[in-house]
Amino acid sequence: MLELQPVFPLSWTLIAQMIELLPDGVMVVDEQGMVLRANAAMEALSGYPSEALVGQPLTLLLPPEQRQRHQRHLQQYFVRPRSRAMGRVPELSLWHREGHGVPVDISLGMFRRGEQTLTLAVVRDMRAIEAMNARLRHLAMHDSLTELFSRAMFGELLTQAVEHTRRGGLPVSVLLIDLDDFKSVNDGHGHHVGDELLREVAQRMRRVLRASDTLARLGGDEFAVLLRDQSDAGHTLAVAQKLVDTLSQPWQTRHHEIFPGASIGIVFAPHDGEDADTLMRHADMAMYRAKEAGRSTYAVFDARMAHQMEEKTLLHGRLKRAIEGNALRLHYQPQLCARSGQVVGVEALLRWSDPELGEVTPGRFISVAENSGLIQRLGDWVIEAACAQIARWRWQGLALRVAVNVSAHQLRQPHFADRLQQSLERWDVPPSLLELEITETAAMTHREQAEVLLGRLAEMGVALALDDFGTGYSSLGHLRQMPVTRLKMDRAFIQGVTHDEADATLTRAIIGLARTLGKTVVAEGVETEAQRDFLQREGCDELQGWLFARAVPAEEVPALLGRLNPPRAGGDNRAHHARPGSGPAEGLSPAFSR
Ligand code: C2E
Ligand code: MG
Ligand code: MG
Prior knowledge:
Alpha-Beta Plaits; 22 helices; 5-stranded antiparallel β-sheet
C-alpha cells in the first residue's frame, strides 16, 4: 500500500502566510460576532484595511437593512454551530466601506479554542462571476447583431403579457414582420450588406415604436413587436402602417440603393389565441396573407386563415402523393376555328380525383403546388404526359395540336427549355404540335428573363399563347415584340359580351388589337350561342368553351372530333385536315348552326 508522507511539515507561521496570500477573504469571528482576524483579501472586498476590521462587529460588513436580523441569526448560530459550504445561500452580499453591496459567497467552519467556539469564514468575491452571468443572460435574451430581444426572450415576455390579459388586463397585440426580399439582398450583395440592412431595419423600427413597446429579432429576417394595452385595435394598425412605410423607404449604401420592404401579420390576444405559441402561429399565417396580397402591407389574422392553412397543408400532402402515385390525368378541351367549326387543337387541363377529397379543381391545387415547389414536378409531368399523348394520337393518324398551361414558376426554372426539348425528342413530337399557354401576368413579370426564354422556345418551333389575356398589364410595344402567336381572351369578358357593354367593347378592342398585331385571337369560356354569334360577328379566330365541349379524357377525343368536326366532302373528319380559316363555311356542326 502506498503510504502518503507529508512532503513538508506545515508550521503555524506558514499557514498564516498562506492565508494572507489566498485570493478569497478569510476571517475568524468569535461568539460575540467580533472579527478576530482578517486576511489581505478582505481589504479588496470590504474597503477596510484588514487590521482595521479586527475588533469590529461582523455586522459592519452587512447591508444595513440586514444588520438587526443578522444579530439574532448570529446568536442562534452559536447555540448550534454548523459548517456550511459555498453555494448554499444565494445572493449574499457584503457591505463595502463605500456604501454599496458586493456580491459574495461564504463558507463557514468552526473550531474550538479553549472554552470558545470560533468561526472561520471564507468569503469569495462573486463580482466577476456575476458579471459573466449577466453577460450570458444578456446574450440569451438579446440578438447579438441588432441588440434587440431574442426569440426566447420575446416568447417569455409574450407569455407574461398574455397571462396579464387573462387576469383581466387590456388586450395586447403582436406584429410579426418579415422582410420581403432579404434573400436576394444576401445573395446579391453579400452577407455583410445583409447584416447592415438588418441593423438598419432594427433602427427604423425602434424609431417608430415607443420605449415601452417590445421589439425582437426572431431570427433571419423575421422581427416581432409586442404592443401592450391595445384597447383600440386602430392603434395597432396605425403602428403596422408606420412600420410598413418606414421599411418601404429606400436604403442607400455606398454602392447600392435597396428597398427592404416588409410584410406584417397581426394578432390580438386573447382574441386570436390564449398562449404565445398559438399567437405566433396565427401571426405567421396573417403574415403569409400579407405576402400573398402583394407584400409591403399588413394583414390581420382571422379564423378562416387557420382553416385555409389546414386545407393547404392537407392538399399539399395529398397532391404530393398523387404525383408520386401517378394519379393525375390530363383531360382535353377542343378549340375550334370560329369560321369553319373545325377543331384546330385541344387544351390539356389537369384533373385530379383524390380518394379522400374527391375531385379537386386546378383552381384549388395549382396555387398550392406553386407555393410549395411541387409545381416543378407537376409541370414536368404535364409536359411529358402531353407529349406522350400527342405521339399516341399521331400513331392513330391524328395530328392534333395540344396546348399546355405553364405556370410562372416553371418559366423561372433554369433548364425549362432543355427539358421541354428532351420531352419532344423522347416522343418524337414535332414542336409545332405543342403550344404553351403562359398567363399574361407571368409573361410580364420578370420580363427580361421571360423574353429570353420565350424567344428560345419560339426558335425551337413551339407555339406560344398568352392565357387569360386582358387581366394583366401588357404594354403594346412589348406585346408586339413577343413571339406569341395566340391571345386567349379571359373567360370573364366573354361571359359578359351579350349583356355588359363594357365587356363587349373590351372584347371588340382585343380582337382588333390582335388583328393589328397579326396574332390569332381565341375566346375561352364560350357557353352560349349568343356569345358564339357575337364572337363570330366580331371576327374572333378561335373558340373554346362548354358550348362545344368540356374537357374529356384522351380516349374520348377522337369520338368528340367526329361529333364536332363538320362533315367534309371527302367524308374525312380528322383534325389534321383542319387549319384555321381553311374549313368550309357550310355544314357547320350543331353548335355552329344558327
Ligand atoms: P385556363 O388555362 O384559363 O383554363 C380554362 C379553364 O376554363 C379550365 O378550367 C376550363 O375547364 C374552364 N372552362 C372551359 N370552358 C369553359 C366554359 O365554357 N365555362 C366555364 N365556366 N369554364 C370553362 P380548369 O380546368 O378548372 O382550370 C383552371 C385553371 O387552372 C386553368 O385556367 C389554368 O390556369 C390552370 N391549369 C389547369 N391545368 C393546368 C396545368 O396543367 N398546369 C398549370 N400550370 N395550370 C393549369
Ligand atoms: Mg389555359
Ligand atoms: Mg385562361
